[in-house]
Design brief:
Elements: H1 2-17, E1 20-24, H2 33-39, H3 47-54, E2 59-62, E3 68-79, E4 94-106, E5 112-125
Antiparallel strand pairs: 1-3, 2-3, 3-4, 4-5
Length: about 130
Amino acid sequence: MKKIALAAIVAVSFATLAGCAGTGNDSLRSETEATVSTKIAEGKTTKDDVRTMFGSPMKTEFTDGGLEIWHYELTKLHSDAVNFIPVVNLFGTSASGQKKELVVLFDSHNVVKRYSMSESAVSQKTGIFN
């Protein structure tokens, strides 16, 4: 009975950890700093243009002067090899991947004043890997 329970736990662990996980705005999936720079022109691209290209923002903020800032994010993580070591994976998990972030500042006429696109490495660890 113990062998069956252990086998079930290992099977569930592998099934849970085997894939990739992603959160955020999927429209950023194929975007880079270079591709975004061909789509957004400061002083020219409008708020409607940005919404058409990237959808609704994940977060909206306002500056002290009342200008609107839109935030788009996409994080893609994949399981690290250590997750597939029997018994060890019962004590924690480890995942790594990339985070993309697009921040757009609009002027008072709803035209892009400034924008920034960045991509950085990220990791997420739990248990003994933390």
